[in-house]
Amino acid sequence: MSLEREEGPAIEPDSGETRLPEAPDGEDVPSSSGASRSLVDDIEDLVFDAKTYLDAELSYQKSRASFVGESLKRVIGFAVVAAILVLFAAIGLTVGLIIALTPLITAWGATAVVVGLLLLGAYLLIRNAGAAWGDVMAAVHDEDENGEQEG
Questions:
Q1: Does residue 89 or residue 22 have the better pLDDT?
Q2: Which residue, 46, 106, 110, 145, has fewest beta-carbon neighbours within 10 Å?
Q3: Where are the domains of the chain?
Q4: How many helices (H) and strands (E) does the chain have?
Q5: Counting beta carbons within 10 angstroms of the beta carbon of residue 18, is it exposed (0 to 12), middle (13 to 18) or buried (19 or more)?
Q6: Pairwise CA distance, residues 33 & 18, whole Å
Q7: In this structure, are residues 18 and 9 in contact, taking their beta carbons and an 8 Å threshold?
Q8: Cα Rg, the chain, nearest whole Å
Q9: What is the 3-state secondary structure (H, E, C) of 116-142?
């Protein structure tokens, strides 16, 4: 039975340096200072890297939140201006309808028709909102009866 040398890291007796198996061109490749590193050093490096990552992540999230906040302000501003313009358009349409209907059914009749239609529309919208609210409350009460608790 012949004794053959195993492939793998070998310790040179005179230098104390760990060497990897020979490279294809015939030279030994020194390992990265693995023999001189300790577990404590690795843990310290890991903690340092974790702190660095945490700092970078916090900075990223802060800048992201700042961007979202500024964008949200712009969105709200545009929405408010758009709502005001829609309100002005509705007022203009209402006045225009009254003016257009005046020759047909007098000024008081035109005003009564336009205001009556607007109030009817508002009543239907409020009734639908109430029905939707009732559905939500029924779903909440149904969950309570099944033993699930709120909050």
A1: 89
A2: 145
A3: 34-145
A4: 1, 3
A5: middle
A6: 8
A7: yes
A8: 39
A9: HHHHHHHHHHHHHHHHHHHHHHHHHHH
